[in-house]
Every structure is written in C-alpha cells, then in structure tokens.
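Entry 14. Ran structure prediction on the chain below.
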Amino acid sequence: MRVLLHTCCGPCAIFPASLLEAEGFSVTLFFYNPNVFPLEEKVKRRDALASLAKEEGWTVVYDDAPYEAYESRVAMLERPRRCQACYLMRLEKTARAASDGRYDGFSTTLLVSPYQRHEDVRRIGEVLGNRFGVSFIYRDFRVGYRRGRSAARGKHIYMQNYCGCGWSLEERVMTDASSRTSL
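Output, structure tokens:
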C-alpha cells in the first residue's frame, strides 16, 4: 500500500515514516508547509529533511507554496480556528496529491507532536480522505515523539523550537523572554 506522508520537518518524520514502513507501507514524504515563517526557517527545515531523506533512502515530494498563501487564509482567525485552518490547508493539499498520484492513503507527521491539536488533525484528515477518495491513515504517533527527536539529535538534524507560523514564533520569543526575566 502506497502512502503519502505529509511531513512538516525531518525530526517529526523519523518515527512515523519508520513505523509505517515497518507496517509494510511504501512511504513517500510530502513537504508542503506554507505556514512556516520566515523563509529562512522553511529552507532550514526543507534542507534538513532532504539530508535525512537521503540518508534514510526516503523519497520526498516538495511543494513550496509561499507563506502569503497561508497568511491570507488565517490572518483574521484566532487560535484554535487558525490552527484548524492550517491543518485543513496542508492536509487538503496532501489528500489531493495522494488522490492525483494514485496513492492508497495519506497521513501526516503532525500526529507525532504532543503540541498539535490531535483530534482536529484526525477529524480533518478523515473528512478529506472521504472527499478525495483516499484513505486517511490514522496513527497516534505521539508515543515516538521523544524517540524521533533523540534520533534527530544523534544525526545532527536541524530541529526547530516552534510550530512554524509567525504567531507560534512570536509566542516562542515571548515565552523565552519571560522565562529569562523571571530568573
């Protein structure tokens, strides 16, 4: 069974791709992340994934939509609706690509992160799977989150410290600043 795995970054790909392959799936990674800001961050994530994929023998399909495509869809939304719109945008593109490429199913590395809205991702994936006629492969990959991060450290793969969008970067900077001032 061929699976297209939406991939946000290298560290998050390690556990889901390995698990799906161990289950007998033929996995192709799909890097589509217009939410990542700034462009330099997106390039770091893409390059780190390319390096890891080469080492692991994984195939990656890249779709480098600009940040403006994401921002125009979510600019007026607050959390959690902004996150839901982001999931929808990325998973819709993945489901469409899976259908067009005649994959049997699709999934996402968003399901590995304990910081993502897991049930929203699952619900959106299932709806899109039905719409595009391709199975959404649901797995709770969170059990492998720390393993994937540890493996990425061991391979010296770049690891970001925020989700990707400008709002999550701002939250991270503010959190870091407040923790330094409280010391």
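The two ends are 52 Å apart (CA to CA). Will compare against last week's run tomorrow.
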